[in-house]
Amino acid sequence: MLKKTILPIFLATLWISLSEFVRNEFFLKSYWTSHYENLGLVFPSEPINGVIWGIWSLVYAAVIFVISKRFSLIETTTLSWVLGFIMMWLVVGNMMVLPFSILPYAIPLSFLEAFLASFIIKKLSKNN
Fold first, then answer.
1. Domain of residue 83, residue span
2. Burial (CB count within 10 angstroms: exposed 0-12, middle 13-18, buried 19+), residue 99
3. Rounded to two decimals, what is the model's pTM?
4. pLDDT of 31-42, one tens digit each?
5. Count of CB atoms within 10 A of residue 41's CB?
6. For the chain, what is the domain count?
7. Is the dihedral of CA 2, 68, 22, 87 positive or negative?
């Protein structure tokens, strides 16, 4: 169980967390902060926000693990990307707090994130 369930989910969680952090803190932070300032808001970057993103990463990795048991790598990647990102972007966009200017960067990077998380889980859990 440890090697085929917990380890793949843990490593995928680490990858997702690192990917989210690097993408949003190093590549896209200025887009987020500027957009929030234009809305009269402060971009949330307190430690508690990092903890919530860590929990999101764990839940996302667990969902990918469950999906991977039934679907191929490409199907797992696509389904997890739709569930993890498209759905979130629809909600965030609807609330008008999404800087649409990040989408040309975020779409391919988030798909890469979903693919590598799916790949880690598929390889380590041997669900082929």
1. 2-125
2. buried
3. 0.92
4. 999 999 999 999
5. 11
6. 1
7. negative
